[in-house]
């Protein structure tokens, strides 16, 4: 939002020694951020008034002209594309070196072979409007060689105020509101706004009044003020009016429209002027479903029942609080107008503006809850200003004012000792009182330590209602920078450990620092297409109501799709890839976290998963199993039994031959599998990829339940290692054989598989598994005979149980 | 017997003198010194001698064995040194290329903040990313009419409550955990809440619909504004260096009153002004304020007895500043070339 410093100075007297930069800094520190400060004359540096002396055809381009322009000091050759350029015109000329408001930098150049020593400017290039049809032709009063800023009388300073952060301050979307803040910040007097419309106007009496107005929905329209004015002339606005509007970035149109805008920029109240010839009467009502209005921007808007319309009883005249209708627009023939100054319900305006994608200066203000008391003031101010351009104006109605705004009494008690405690230091009483008074608050009583304070209507709509709100007013004017910092003194206590977070951190460190995997952060949203390619069912996935794109419509239930896309993104960059992600997944079933404190309803079930992927390289399945095994043993203990068992339900994306469930003891904690060819092809994955997904919450539970790690003394006696290889049916699983070996005798301290073979030397349905078997006792040296005996019995049992044969090396 | 030993000694030493390479040396070792070598054979014969003779020859045999082994090791060592001396070693060659893994910069910055606040006695808390409308908005003093609830800002789940309104959201802030933790722990309370948040807005180099925040709360009797200011100052000094200054400006957030933002001295230029701080010397980093009494009430804490402060950082922004990252979309891109730098 652009704010004119000259305009502010109409209302507040700021000592001249305070520089514009200090004014901006004052607003930033105490009220709202001023993002920029622009001196108009600097905007037009190197732009002067010139006169066109010659207009000639361009030798190489039909649409271009070569002009000779006198800028007093010299005569310049300028190539110009505007169709309206003509000999004798006074025009704004940007000289070489000018930096124009639209960002253009003027350099000496050659245009289609002809040298051009500057530019004759159009409206948009000088930030004076959006027009780029032709160059600006200046009035007769332009002086040759004059600075363009002087011609415009542009000596203003423009403050760019961050209005995004003003969502609680409708009063600040106006010059008067900001002037009020400045008067408080710099302790300067503020002129009462009433002084600016003390011209006497006589409205018709209720009896004489013929302007019929009806508000059907008093909730959506708490106040509607209007007046009919006859005998007006629609003209170009006077220079002062245009200057002000240009300063705030509003394009001047005609005296009537410009004045409605002027009053809005000045006091914050949007006004709308209807051509009275088109308005029999005014009825404010909700739209019917499907009703259509053509707005001023020449677009047809289709409405629903919650939209509010200004109508003439039948046809719509305006979309309330947002934009006027085409049919009742002020035009050059308009001789009589109806001026609307109304207050609309913020939420209704916001919803309609939002739905239609139509945000205007008016809707911007209404949707922040404007002060209903503004409506009659704005009408009077408009009339006072209109008198200047239409001295013969005639008021043709009563000042119709249908006020249904609730008349709230807004008073707050402010205990000064409470205030000082809240801030952490004592603020002098007179400073508190003065700050609040300057901001328009009334001190009703200030007996003792407690002040009774009335809130002004412009702060009462939704901004200020508690003593904390008042504390902020006092504090911000006192200045945050003036507060003395003081660390809180608190009782020492032991913060509860977040074991989940500690575990997450440990896992991330092990996987990245030890196993060289990279940490991915993938989106929580997935798309149907992505899941289809991976053959994942998604009928039960939770959908978003308002997804940003088709690619992200559902809440993920698995980290696998994200990891597959990580492979896809990077597969061309490196040979071997490894990623992991630790993130939340979401299910369509009630979980264990309450929706709110008053109901038994639960949020959808959410848990964290750990996903891993390896792509490219040899024996990925074995490697990832190894990583998982070691990770889990590091998290629990070396003795933790991690096994991989055949999967009963195989995920759609998994290769059936190479898919297993990950077990810790007897608890299933996840899945590991090779991405199958179909899914890989569909998803454009060029490298073999093995993926695993572990339920972090289950893992967490296991870790919390696992006994603490106890060291035990290593045996002093030597171990004996024997190598055994068995040939057995290929269907027999390692895991079953291993179990048999380990559990056979307590003196068997460990087994380690060192060879798996199937091939030429064996029948096709057979495989060979070879183990190092370690025998050891904690209390003696084992004799050869003792070991031989166990080994013989073991072999016999394996041969018997698995129909295996002992294989010779 | 003695002669046999002497001959073996002479043969061995003679052959040892001719050793040129390690293969030959190994052969010698097998021939004479191994378990089945000639020396062992002779020593094996000792058991057939008379007791006296066995002692005499035994001593000699052991003496010779020690001598031969010593000489063997000498030659073996010389050979090893000799071979090293022969070839030129380029010590500037690089070491083996080993695979590296990398943590996300978000994780790194989050860890840093967690450690900082943990050292100040703050708990680290977490909450659901899929939240109820109640905890995400209503309990935080954002009634159903608040602009932040507009569809453009919030991802709603396609699920309506009995009143026909969307009642589940992807949390737009970590603040719902404020209420949940107040309800769980009561007052006094010191906690930070790091986590993933969502806003329904189009992504570009500076906007991301999925991002990370860390927010902190401290609730106790008599928590006041000067405490907030002081706490933010020390956080800034820890994050950006000892000389870091804090500047506070008023800013509206519905869940605090008074509310403010905090700017720290730009750590890149030490406040002199640079590209990163847009030549202001300051970086806007934190939003903060005193917890609104309605928020305390929603958390079941009596605002007449307790007061609280709250502050929040954007983790993405902190990571972008710290590591000079220019595009916020990189965090969720899974791009290895990006990740490899951390």
Characteristic key phrases:
heterodimer, A: 809 residues, alpha+beta, Phenylalanyl-tRNA Synthetase, Chain B, domain 1, OB fold (Dihydrolipoamide Acetyltransferase, E2P), Phenylalanyl-tRNA Synthetase, Chain B, domain 3, 6 domains, 7-stranded mixed β-sheet, 5-stranded antiparallel β-sheet, 27% helix, 27% strand, elongated, B: 342 residues, BirA Bifunctional Protein, domain 2, 11 helices
Q: Could you give the distance between the termini of chain A?
A: 87 Å
Give the spatial strand order of the biggest sheet of chain A: 26-29-30-34-33-32-31
Radius of gyration of CA atoms of chain B, rounded to a whole number = 38 Å
Annotated CATH topology of the largest domain in chain B = BirA Bifunctional Protein, domain 2
Number of strands of chain A: 38
Q: What kind of assembly state do the chains in view correspond to?
A: heterodimer
Q: What is the typical, i.e. mean, pLDDT of chain A?
A: 92
Largest interface: pair, residues per side? A-B, 92 and 90 residues
List the domain count of chain B as a whole number. Answer: 2
User: CATH-wise, what's the superfamily of the largest domain in chain A?
Assistant: Bira Bifunctional Protein, Domain 2
| Cα radius of gyration of chain A in angstroms | 40 Å
CATH topology of the largest domain in chain A: BirA Bifunctional Protein, domain 2
Strand content of chain B: 15-25%
Number of domains of chain A: 6
Give the number of helices of chain B. 11
What's the architecture of the largest domain in chain B, going by CATH?
A: 2-Layer Sandwich
Q: Helical percent range of chain A?
A: 25-40%
